[in-house]
Amino acid sequence: MVVSSRRNVIMGPKKKVTRKRKPEEDNKGSEVEEEIEGEEPKEKERKGKDKKRGKNKYIGAHVSISGGIWKAVGDCLAIGGRSFALFLGSQRSWQRPPLNTAAAEKFQKACVENGFNPVHILPHGSYLMNCGSPKQDVFEKSQALLVDELGRCSALGLSLFNLHPGASLGSITTEQCQEKIAQAINQAHQQTPAIVTVLENMCGQGSTVGGQFGELRGIIDRVRDQSRVGVCLDTCHAFAAGYDLSVKGGVKSVLDEFDQVVGLSYLRALHLNDSKGKLGCHLDRHEDIGHGQIGIPAFRDIVNEPRLDNIPMILETPGRPGFEDKEQIELLYSLCKH
Ligand SMILES: [Zn+2]
Ligand SMILES: [Zn+2]
Fold first, then answer.
1. Dist. CA 164 → ligand 2 center (Å)
2. Is 24 one of the catalytic residues?
């Protein structure tokens, strides 16, 4: 599913920094400058009694990069996010102008100043890519775009890159498709430094690969450097693919199954979305948290699940008046028991 916008970040040396708060961040509505000396800058603290709730949970959202990739950081802070996703360029073209060096530096600086760790930032790959395509021209263009995307991650000081695995278009087998995807990843890994390619689970629509955990495992098995591959679990996609998160104990049993088939050590991120469609519908229809078929109890279990500590949990929900990203993040933190 396509989300609104895009942005990026990087880490740098620890030193004295001046952090400029955005007006939304304090009650007075004025800009406050704060000096932090000698230690790594901390992320903005949440207020009042919720300050420590969910301290190991890194909930955030997909944010825009319009107007400059570095602005993603401020947008994330403005909605109370502790993690974020962003696109690394236009979703419409195979060939994109190179990343502006000054913009990349600003992005890295913004991340450092606001205490964002690269492992909590998950760039989302272009929707044009199909690294499993049976069509040679599309496969080659996808492979080149993957190399370009991983290069952008490096330039931004990031460590993860989220990819929709691909689709067989019905003309090759699922295994052949997995083979092609792994081939594209292996080649891209050879050409780029240590970015981890994070495969997103799909909803099993059409000929897409990665709806079943076994298909993700099939790709991982074929990746040469398995320290450089991971998985991002999208709750809407999992539910639409038939994994029932909505029943009592559903979150635990789906994670157990993921652990058995793929391995929890590969789990690098979550996309938090409720689902408009029913269990096993194979439709990629995101819904706001608590307004879909998955429901609040499952999200309560997710934000209280210790196995999901310290990984980015990113909203890609449509939002509705009064219940946009900021309010949905607040709601999720309010569900944390401690
Ligand atoms: Zn989706
Ligand atoms: Zn996605």
1. 6
2. no
C-beta neighbour count of 205 within 10 angstroms? 16
Tell me whether residue 50 is in a domain: yes
Model pTM? Answer: 0.86
* Residue 163 forms part of a structural domain: yes
Here the CATH number for the domain that contains residue 93 is 3.20.20.150
Nearest CA-CA partner of 3 in 59, 71, 65, 46: 65
In a domain, 242, yes or no: yes
The pLDDT tens digits for 16-72 are: 333 333 333 333 333 333 333 344 444 445 655 556 789 999 999 999 999 999 999
Task: Reply yes or no on whether 316 is catalytic.
Answer: yes
CA of 5 to the centre of ligand 1 (A): 15
Residue 238 lies in a domain: yes
Annotated catalytic residue 266:
no
∠285-289-291 over CA atoms, to 5°? 70
**Into how many domains does the chain fold?**
1
Residue 214 predicted with pLDDT over 70: yes
